[in-house]
Amino acid sequence: MSEIPETPVVPDLTAVFQAPPVTLLARADAVQLGDVIDTIDGPVRVREIVQRQHTYDLAGDPPGHVIRYRTLRRGGPEDVPPLHRRRLARTMQIRVRRSVQKFGRLTGHTKKIASHNPVKRGWYTDPGGYDAACSCGWKHPDVHASRDGAAGGWLRHKAGQLSEAAYADNPALLWLWTAETTHPSLPPLPWHFKKVVSRGTVGCEVGDGIAFADLDMLTVARARTVMGAWQAVFDVDPEGTYEDYRPGPVDTLDGARPGWTTLRLSGTGIRTRIILDARIDDPDSGPT
């Protein structure tokens, strides 16, 4: 088996956004410019959205990537195309990291910034630093040197509340965060998510999450390598895991096609079903 490629470095999203990041699930048609999404090439900050009839093309660059536009001899600068793209069905839910500044008021959470132990010194009052607290009862343990610093501490609390709500709503999102935190060398995948809302899904209860990743854009060898890395972090389901090879040529309505290889890795995590799929046109690779 070939070596696992190094995971692309993810910069501090707080520095990229200039505000604390929020993790949430969003449909493809709800992604906003500036959001960070998952792709097979690692995290990408969206700077181009193309809407088609039933799909959305989300394109961008690694978070923190500096875009240097080419300057034309005449006229203004020439647009540089995004480095990475991901095409999604309009209603597909994906993981999104978004600046907390893009969220409005949060019910039950009102910012409370106050001077810490102020002392009156003649005509001047020494605030003694600033405390950050919230109407929900939370209070930052540190005393901040400035009012803006205290406000930033409260924003981190707000971002945490929004992210925790997303994790609680879909266990698959929490499972993914846990896997990536525990095993930071895992190769990136373009995840999308569903939630079990009725009985009938084998091995799942109502409320459980399902995490999917499509690896169709990889070569067969690379897909096997990536699946091999991820199968170590969850319980593999032998009945749902298989490899199949269809030799070509195959006659279709669009003409003859080469053979293809189908790979599937299926398993379970905590309240989560995990499915990694790949159907790759590759007439030279059979089962191993």
Automatic annotation (TrEMBL):
The protein's name: Uncharacterized protein
Organism: Streptomyces fructofermentans
